[in-house]
């Protein structure tokens, strides 16, 4: 499989030529954005929305399944004619260290600079805490750690969380864990301590492995933003969207609706003037980490931590 079978042609630019602005390639002025888990569902809708609405954006559509990823590229290009040449597929399994490192090498054939990352890949595994956390929590950790050096000042990271995270925290029977996940600034050991929490299945006492993993993602977002104050890093729930993951569970909103808040976090200038490390609801409003806030409910105005 050739990495350039679809999308913009590979090129390797010297570091000195990268970045007229955050993640922009100085030769073509494009902002390069990487979206994981994007051969279908919300991830695919994010790729399509970016190409439809932002002519200065080129997208890396990441897929664990190569054929499905290539098919997604073809389908999107049919629907968004102006997107042709701005979309390419990257093989990427966020649950594998080796796959993530291989993806870095492929991306660097196209550009030395990323404007942003959307960590969308996820799984819904009931009761399988370690397997769930490997993809939903450690997946974004792997991707961000691998690609962070390619994101210049002002670049953005969007971690796809879920309302299941705050719901997990609100029902968590462990007060100490509840405090850490709802107030990440109290995690004295930083990311190392959060990794330890994620690696211990007994922390998920109520069996909600998905909610646990997404609560970890939101806490991780705050810690990552603290470590990288020059970047715009936030988490968001796309809402209750009808995808393969939620099939038969009553979700009715289309993936196109779920793409709205992540793309807003990626592209809105409003985010340049407010603290980062926040968690946003599907209505693009700030939300708490310890209880559910529905679309249209009062905006959360609590502390941003220390």
From TrEMBL:
Molecular-function GO term, any one: oxidoreductase activity
Region (Disordered): 1-24
SUPFAM superfamilies in the cross-refs: NAD(P)-binding Rossmann-fold domains (SSF51735)
Signal peptide positions (record): none
Pfam families in the record: adh_short
Keywords on record: NADP, Oxidoreductase
Biased segments, Polar residues type: 15-24
Similarity section: Belongs to the short-chain dehydrogenases/reductases (SDR) family.
Annotated protein name in UniProt: Carbonyl reductase [NADPH] 1
Taxonomic source organism: Seminavis robusta
